[in-house]
Structure formats: structure tokens, C-alpha cells
Amino acid sequence: MTTSHAVEANTESDAPPASPSHGSGGLIIRQREPRNLEFPFDRLDSYLTPVESFYVRSHFHAPELQRDSYRLSVEGAVKNPLSITYEELRRLPAKTVVATLECAGNGRIFLIPQRSGAQWELGAVGNAEWTGVPLATLLNRASPGGNAREVVLEGADRGAAPEQPGPPGQISYSRSLSLDKALDDVLIAYAMNGVDLPQDHGFPVRAIVPGHYGMASVKWLTRIRVLDEQFQGYWQTTDYGYWDEVDGIPVRRPLSDIKLKSAIARPRTLEVIPGGQLYNVYGAAWTGAADVVAVEVTTDGGRTWAAAKFVDPIRPNAWRRWSYDWKTPERPGRLTLMSRATDAAGASQPDTFDERYHSYVIHHTLPIEVVVR
Amino acid sequence: MTTSHAVEANTESDAPPASPSHGSGGLIIRQREPRNLEFPFDRLDSYLTPVESFYVRSHFHAPELQRDSYRLSVEGAVKNPLSITYEELRRLPAKTVVATLECAGNGRIFLIPQRSGAQWELGAVGNAEWTGVPLATLLNRASPGGNAREVVLEGADRGAAPEQPGPPGQISYSRSLSLDKALDDVLIAYAMNGVDLPQDHGFPVRAIVPGHYGMASVKWLTRIRVLDEQFQGYWQTTDYGYWDEVDGIPVRRPLSDIKLKSAIARPRTLEVIPGGQLYNVYGAAWTGAADVVAVEVTTDGGRTWAAAKFVDPIRPNAWRRWSYDWKTPERPGRLTLMSRATDAAGASQPDTFDERYHSYVIHHTLPIEVVVR
What we know:
Shape of chain A: globular
Number of strands of chain A: 25
Radius of gyration of chain A: 23 Å
Helix content of chain A: under 10%
Largest interface: A-B, 82 and 82 residues
Largest sheet of chain A: 5 strands, mixed
Low-confidence stretches of chain A: 1-20
Number of helices of chain A: 5
Mean pLDDT of chain A: 93
Oligomer: homodimer
Distance between the termini of chain A: 34 Å
Strand order of the largest sheet of chain A: 6-5-14-9-10
């Protein structure tokens, strides 16, 4: 073992290497296969999340579908079952919407004790412009029967159920929506920020269900089934479900709407911040319900709160970035920052996690601990 | 749902907000409690990892020890058992060494299928300057008996064993070393990069075992026990162990030496890189055995390799950063980069993971997938 009482000058405090060019994008690996990749949320700097920075949530190995052989069927409780090709879909009248997708487990790393599932921190969320055909267009052509109640969206991705209770053998990734929601604003999308969907985001076609957690926006969508009954698939009973209560009796329900939330992008956890200066606290806020109308920031662990300014206008189901100039304290120490959003109905983010959701819907005020020096 | 066929100009591609000042440091949360925090390895830019960026690996809740009441005992198979205070320790002749610590599970996220344990990507590694008293000084004062064989380092952190088979009730974090290693270069450290150890790094006193995976460098060190026999504690039999083989029979052994490894800090996974330009590929290489003498980089998934240049000199048990100027291809596409280190004994990193280690010692060439555009 070599010992040294001082590190040589040439290695002690050197500048970053001269770098002729560096790239953009890049994701934090939370699981390598199936791919579960997180947007480094501290890099938030645009309204639309670039495609290459958009978080990836996959339940099974990504299927490799081909444009030429792709078919989307609309079947079940309909008068005119359909099977349409990719080219046919592209020729139908299209619509473009901006929508924020958030994984229902985003923020899970904040839960103590640790819960099973991908250990997302802040960045399993993104905001993009989606282009495609309204699901209503396809449903109206297929003509649901008079007793139709739900629409099941089924992806081409398949595998063993990851948790118990799970059915034997392989299952596909399938989720249902009420017929009302399906006819309202759901998009059968083929483009994201103006380019064809990448494979990780559901190429060639995925659903976009504005206002619902990302699990509803089924990727690699190949089958749409209309049902006269309530769907009881694995991905809304065992997984992506929660315990509601009817007359004191717990009942299992599928997760759906994105709950009101805000998150701090900068500073990062344990960032070291100079004292006695202005620091730009920066983040985003979103909800699947009423519009976000206010964000407050605390820099003293919740004792006092100050209003942040919005960077973006209100657009339903899309996030609004916000910003707050913080005069950092002169005195060194550890501080806890939090942000808190309020919506147009007057509701604010809760202070604590709602345990009925077990490992999902982590939308309470999340503590970001920083070091002032 | 509001729809829009084009995003308004004021929100489409805006620059990052004017930020009066931003801080340094910041860690990726892999587990919040106990704290397991990863250095964002793509931020590598100094030989010594700043204290606030150094990865944190904790097995139990961090104990809050006080300087005034702190005692370190040296006991067991010794002629003169000791109990020394923090102040006494600080008055003994000190030594300062630079050593790289790497968690034995660093890179676990690259293993398919996923293994249990903290899902480290690249940054459960850091290089720091450690100051303290040689363990040999304390052992020589205590005077081990003639049959002494091992030295057990015990931390003040306690809790239930996380995996099976585990003993009932609470256990402390304890690891043993051979008496030879303990008398060689192990440090009983109280400072890191010239400042007192922070709580997350073992305040007030921890062991530093140069060349061994981080699990050997016991934090919150309060007891040193000399044994006449081989120690069979949980943290080297059930956990932090691997399957060796004797005459065809698998036998359990504790992990020890850091294996030869290199890692790419930049580009990051799925970084988007401009084509037809120079890109500075940058990383570090380290080993607990013979010195690292060469690093090669492939930018075509392993077909061809080119030599990188070292940024740092050789210093045993400390990393060497390296750099390689890559002329990126004109043609867009996805490419896989890897780096491969060679040591002074002529050994190189393997191409594949050695399954005997199950979820540890991930030191093969790790693929970094990037997008050229």
C-alpha cells in the first residue's frame, strides 16, 4: 500500500476534461430488462420532454412489431368488428394533444419501508405532444352494443405475471377504461413530439389516456375489446389496484386518475448550495383532475411557504413548470425543501402518503434534503 | 380535454431558466432508509470524489454516535485489551492514504434477470483521501496472542438480517479480516478529504480496508475483536459471500478483493450524441490487485478496440481516470460502447459476468448504449 500525506497537485482539484462535444438525453436505469428507465428529473428544462429523455416503463420484453404486418382489431360487444392496418390508421383524421404521463409508482423510493416494484425517484414522468386517431373514431365505426360498458386495451407484450395472485402461464398487458372515457379523449397514437413512436414507447401504436396514470396508456396496442361487464384483469386487480372502502368493507379498485402533484427538479437530493445567494428552485406540477393554479415552496421543512411563479400556461392534463427564487441562508446546515400544488377546486397536495395505495399514487409533498455551505 | 394542433411558441423549445446559481453534489436515491445513495457517475470530473458526492451504502439506520462518549475497544484474543476515546485516537500518529471504495454490488442493474439488493448502476464507487490511525498501531498495543488468526471489525449499526438464512433478532454489521491484512494497511479513519467523517460515512470512526470491496470498510466502528478461529458472521456467509470450489465441491467464501474494472462515465446510457464530431469518452478504472496499466474502448459493440489515455498516475488501490476522443460516425444509429481495463499482471476484464458471485463482483465489460443522431 502506497501512502501519501498529500495528493499531488496535478490530480487534486482539476477541471473537467476539455470535451469537444457532449450529447443530450440519457436515462437512469432502474431495471435493465424489461427496460425501466427514469428521466433524470434534475435536467428538466423544456415544456415538452425530449423523446430520448422520456421515461420508459415496461412490464415485459418490448415486442418488435412491424409496420407492414401490424393490425389493430376492435372486437367484442360491437356490431361491426374491425381490423385495420397501420396505413389505414395513418390515413384517418388525426388529432394532436399535449399530455403528461406519470407512472403510478413514480416517487416510490420515498416510501419507508421500501415497497416492491421499480424504485422510481422523481423522473417517471414526462410531458409530450401525442398525435393519433381518437379512439372514439374507431369505436364509432365498430358501433358498441347497447349494453357495452368497458373497453379493454391490449398490448402485444406478454410474459409471466410478476406478482401474486397471478394467473398461470403468460399474460398480455391489458387495461380497461369505462366506455365514457374511451369515447371522450383517448388517442390511438403513432407519433410523439412529431416523430414516429420509438420502440420503447410502443411502436407502432399506443394508447394515450390523458389524465390517467401511465399504466392506462397501453403500448404496442394490437387489440381493443368492448365488454358488457367490468374487466377483472391482472393489471387492475392484483397490480395497479388499491383498497377503497364501501360501508366499512375494503374493496379493490383499479387505479385511474393522476392525483395532484408537484415535484422539485432542482435542487437535487443532497445538492450542496452556496449560502447567502439567490438559488432558482425549479420544478413542475400536474394533475389529472382540475387545473393546477398554485404552487408553494418551503425551504424550512414546512414551517413557512412562499408562492412559486408558473413558467407554463394552464393546459388540461399537461404539466406546468414553476420557478422560485430562494435567498439561501448565510448559515451552513441541512435544510428540507418541499413543494405543494393547489388545484382550481381548492385541493392541495397532502402532507403524507395514503397507505391505501400501498406502493402507488405517491403524490404527497416530497422532502428534498439539501446542504447549505 | 383541450386539444391543440401545435404547441404555442412560448412553451415549445425554451431555454433553461436563468439560474442565479446552482450547487454541486447531489446523489441518486436507490433506497431512502437505510440510506443507499449513488454518485451520478456521469458527473465524474475530479480525482477525489467530493464528500457530498460520495456514494452511501448503509445496511441499517445510521447510528448517531457522539464524539465525547465514543469508545473503541480492542478485545478478544489479545494480551492487553484496550478501550480508547475519540480524543486518544486523534492524538495517535496518523497516516493519510488515497483509496477507491466500491460497493461489491456496484453495477447490479446490468444483471439479467434482476437480482435482489440495491439496484446500483455505475456510481457505487468513489475515490477519497482517508486519514486515521493504522489498525496495526492499535493491534500492536493490544498484542494479539500466538494463535490469533482473524480480526473482526464491528459497527454500531444494528437491525434484523435482511436475507435468509439469517439469525433471529438483531445483528450488528460485522466483518472479519485476516490478521495479516489487518496488520498491513488497514486504517482506522476519522477524516475524509481532510474533513471529519460525515454521519453517512461512519462518524466518528470507520475502517478503511484498501483494495477490498466497500463492505470491509466497516462504518461507525466501535469494536475490534481478535479471534483464534475463522469468523462465520452473517455478513460473510449469507451475505457478501460467493461460491468457490474445492475439488469439485462448492464452498462458501467471503468476498474480499476489488476485481479489475473500468467504467464509462460519459456518454450516459441512451445519451444522444451528434454524428461526425469528436466526442470525449471519459471514465475511470480501478482494482484491488495489480496496478491498472491500460484501458481500451470499443464504440462498435466489441468488434474493435482503441487505447484510452490515462488522466491520473498509478497509485495502488486508487482509481485512474481515462479519456478517449471518439470520432462519432456520420450515420445515425444505436451503438454500444464498452471499456476494458488491463492490469500489470496482464489480466483483462472478462466479457461476461461470473455467476458464482450471484449478485456481486460485477466487473465484466458493461455495455453503454447510445444514440447517434
